[in-house]
Amino acid sequence: MLGLGEFDEDGNVNISHLGGKFYGVGGFIDISQLIDKISFCFRKKKALKRLSHISFRASDKRC
């Protein structure tokens, strides 16, 4: 289970560019490439129409 900053209606996730600041992805890429399933934990909020940056593209994956 990983945290996220924002997500869009297609399930794409941004974890690195938030509030005009760049935080980086840390070990997120390594983790997401080595597992079969991934879950994201976040505070309940509305999905965005468009992300400022896509760190994980769920539209290419089975959800």
UniProtKB/TrEMBL annotation:
<protein>
    <submittedName>
        <fullName>Uncharacterized protein</fullName>
    </submittedName>
</protein>
<dbReference type="InterPro" id="IPR037171">
    <property type="entry name" value="NagB/RpiA_transferase-like"/>
</dbReference>
